[in-house]
Every structure is written in C-alpha cells, then in structure tokens.
Write a structure and sequence with these properties.
It is a single chain. The protein is mostly helical. Helix content is about 70%, strand content about 0%. The protein contains eleven helices and no strands. Helix 1 packs antiparallel against helix 7 (about 185-215) and helix 4 (about 120-140) crosses helix 5 (about 150-165). The protein is globular.
C-alpha cells in the first residue's frame, strides 16, 4: 500500500524564468564554484527527466487509478522542468561555457541503462528521484544555498525543488507496484544496489562536470578542488546535509513520504506569490 498522503495534490505550475534576460556568468553570488555546481546539475536535467518520464510511463498500465493520475501529473511537471532547464542551459552556453562534454556523459549513462531491461530503468529512476527530492528539500530548507543568486535563476531552482518534493513518491510507488510479486528481500537488495550505483555515478560525473566548467574559467589545481569540496561538504554543505535522508532510503519500510515536508512547498509557494505581487 502506498504511503503517499491521501490529500496530496501534484500540481504542475506552468512558469517561465529569465526569458529575454542574460544570466551572469557567475550567477550565484559571483562565485565560480557555486555557479558551476548548479550549472553541472542543470545540464543533466533535460535528457535525464525525459528518461524518468519514459521509465515511469512504461509501467503505468494496470496501476491503481490514483497512481495513474499521479503519473500523469508527474509527467506534466517533468516536461515543464525539461523546458525550463533547456532555456537555463542555453543561457549557460550564452555566458561562454561549453557543456558538450557534460552532455556526452549524460548520453553515455542513459545509453547504458536503456540497454538493460525496463525494470532497471524504473529502479534507476526511483533512486534518482529520491536523490533529487532530498536535494530539493535541502535547497528550500536553507535559504543560504541560493543567497545572492540571480533572481530569475533562484526562482527557477526553487520552483523545480517544490515540484520535486511534491512528486517524490510517484516513481517509488510505481516501482512498488511493478515489483509487487517480488520477495521483500529481493526488492530491498535490488533498490539498494541501484541507489549505491547511481550515487557513485552522480558524485563522479557531477564532480567531473564542475571541474570541467571551472577549468573553462581558468580555475584548476588543488586549491580549486578544495574550494569545491568545501562548498559541497563544508559550507553551505549541500551534500553533507542530505546524508541522513540518503541513508533513510536503505531502512526497512522506507517510503519517500515517511518524511512529510509539504510545509516547505506551502512556504515557498507563498513566498513566490508575495514576491510576484511586490514586483507588480
């Protein structure tokens, strides 16, 4: 049985950000490392989220009506995320960065997983959706992550984070439905192995991507590596702060909605509405 809250509403918010505006090269606090961290992540989203949608929709037939409706809403949200990250990534390129090597690595990873049975793609999606949801939680929970960011870029990242939290149970519930005839230990063993693999790939690929973008700014060497590690694991420490939520994934009885963080959605939606009204 799904542990997704019965009163949850997955609401696609059709918003556009930064159209017609140039994004500063170092758009996050004039900090090359912070900017590269988010730019490298954004490059993965257009093709990655298309993969998520395909992986989940492949198993929608026969799902309970409620889950089928959530898959439809999840799809709409992910399509709009793709659109906005395509636009954001175009501004990254316009700022002078070459992201072709980062995109090639995404293509390589997706080609590998697509060569496996469809259930493997769903398992990878389920694990990565948890990963993105806990990143989204931390992004909204601690305003320091986007402090001094370009306004349009910050609004886009917060909007994306809201919806990642909102649909965080969809891929997991689809996985549970698709593997409903599996023994519990097999299901736990497979999902745990997949999470360990996607985490390793995430850390390795995003590190290489950040270093690639920093090198294009002429920033290389041990001091730059130390700055990057401090940003990720020290202050503001996004990767350090999600560790506990990441570990929760391996606990018996885990479900993404074990931790109900919809209050972050309500607060962020309210803050966005207030900001729009003030600007008007």
């Amino acid at each position: 049985m799904s542990r997704t809250p019965s009163d949850l509403s997955i609401t696609p918010r059709d918003r556009r950000f930064g159209r017609g505006d140039a994004t500063p090269r170092w758009w996050l606090g004039n900090d090359a490392v912070a900017t590269a961290f988010y730019n490298a992540l954004s490059v993965t989203f257009p093709k990655g989220e298309g993969f998520f949608v395909d992986s989940v929709r492949r198993f929608r037939d026969g799902t309970p009506p409620r889950l089928a409706g959530e898959i439809a809403a999840f799809t709409k949200q992910e399509v709009m995320h793709t659109r906005e990250h395509v636009a954001f990534n175009r501004r990254v390129v316009d700022a002078g960065y070459d992201v072709s090597r980062l995109e090639a690595k995404v293509d390589e990873r997706l080609a590998f997983i697509r060569s496996r049975p469809a259930i493997a793609s769903l398992a990878a999606t389920m694990a990565l959706e948890h990963f993105t949801a806990i990143l989204a939680h931390e992004l909204l929970a601690d305003p320091r992550h986007l402090a001094d960011a370009d306004t349009a870029a910050a609004e886009m990242w917060r909007w994306h984070a809201i919806e990642e939290i909102e649909h965080k149970g969809v891929a997991y519930d689809t996985w549970m439905h698709a593997t409903r005839d599996w023994p519990r230990f097999k299901r736990w063993r497979v999902k745990s192995k997949v999470m360990l693999l996607v985490t390793k790939n995430f850390l390795v690929d995003r590190t290489r991507g950040v270093l690639d973008l920093l090198a294009q700014d002429g920033l290389t060497g041990p001091r730059v590596w130390a700055r990057m590690a401090w940003f990720a694991f020290g202050k503001p420490g996004m990767m350090r702060k999600i560790l506990g939520a990441w570990v929760d994934f391996f606990k018996p009885g885990f479900h993404p909605w074990t931790h109900d963080d919809r209050a972050l959605i309500a607060k962020s939606d309210s803050d966005y509405g207030a900001a729009v009204m003030a600007a008007a």
